[in-house]
Amino acid sequence: MKGFVLYERGKTALRDVEKPVCGKKDIIIKVESAAICGGDLHFYNGTLDLGNYPIVMGHEFAGVIAEKGPDADPYWKPGDRVVSENTASVCGRCPACERGNFVNCPERRTLGCDENGAFTQYVKIPGDLLDVYKNCLFRLPESIPMDIAPLLEPAANSYMAVVQEGRLMPGENVVVFGAGALGLLCVQIAAIAGAANIILVGMPSDQKTRFPCGMKLGATHTLINSPDSDIAAQIKNICGNSGATLCIDAAGIPQVLKQALDIVRNDGIIVRIGMNDTSYGYGLNELNVKSVDVMGHMGYNTTSWRNVINLASIGKLDLASLVTHRLPLSEIENGFQLLRRQEAIKILIDPNA
After folding, report:
1. Are 308 and 152 in contact (CB under 8 A)?
2. pLDDT class for 52, splitting at 50, 70, 90?
3. CA–centroid distance for 211 within its chain
C-alpha cells in the first residue's frame, strides 16, 4: 500500500509502506478519510522537526475496523465505524493519566508523529493502549458522514479551549485570533455555547475564504490585524462595558498574545492554542494588574470528544462548511501547497484513491 512519508525534516514522498500486523490485542482500522492539519503543514515545511523518521504522516482520520486480535477489547468488532483520538501510547501511571488527561502524558506517542499515521490505507491501534485508554477510539454515529468525521479531532480541540478551559457562559463576548481551522471551529463552538459577540481577527489573506466561513459559522464581526489597525479600540467599541471575557489565541505569535492580554477584560481568560518558538519579548504586568488567567492548551479529553460527536450527530456542529478541497492520496502534495498558500481551510484525503 502507499503512504505519505516524511523521511527527513521537511522532505516527503509517496512510498510503498507495509500494512501493519495485528497482534493479539490490537485493532487494525481501514482508513476511509483523513484530513491535513496545520501541524502537518509545519512538519511538511520543516519549520518543526519531528525528530522521528521515516514516519507516515496523518493524525486526523476515521475509518472502519478491518481486523481485531483474538484478545482485543470485545467492545469493538470488525465493521464498526470509528474515529480515532490519534494517541498511540501513554504510560498510564503519571498524574495526567491518573486524571484521564492522556494527551498530557509526558510519554504519550501520537499516530502520524511518533508512530505511523493515517495518510495510508491501514492504521494499527495497539492493544496495550486500549487496555489503559478505553476512549482512544469512538464509535461514529451513522448520522455523521465518514468523509467529514476527521474534523471531529480539531472540533474536540476547540471545544476544550472554549468551553472547558475558557469557561464561556452564554452572553459573554469572545475574541478569536487566527482564522485557520482551529480558530474557525472555536468561533462555531462559541456560537453554540451562546456567546454574544464573536470577533474573528485574521490577516488580509483570510478575507476571501476564511472570513466568509467564519461568518457562516457564527462570527458577528471580522477584523484584520495589521500595524495600521487599532484592534483594541475596535473590540472595545463592539463589546462595550462588558468587554471581552475570553480571548482564544489560535495564531500563537507573541504579538497576538500581547494583544490578547491588552484586550481581555479584568478577570478574563486567554487560551493559547497556537504555537511559536519566538521569545515573548513583552512585560507581563498586565497579567497581574488585570488578574487574567492564561491557559496553555493541548488537545482534548473524553468529554470534549463525546460532546462534539453528540453535537455533530444532531446537526448542531457544522463540519462540512470547513471543507474546501477533497483529494486522493496521490494528490496530497497539492493539498499541502494549497494550505501553504492559505487557499484552503480543511483538505480531506481519500487514502484509497
Report:
1. yes
2. confident
3. 19
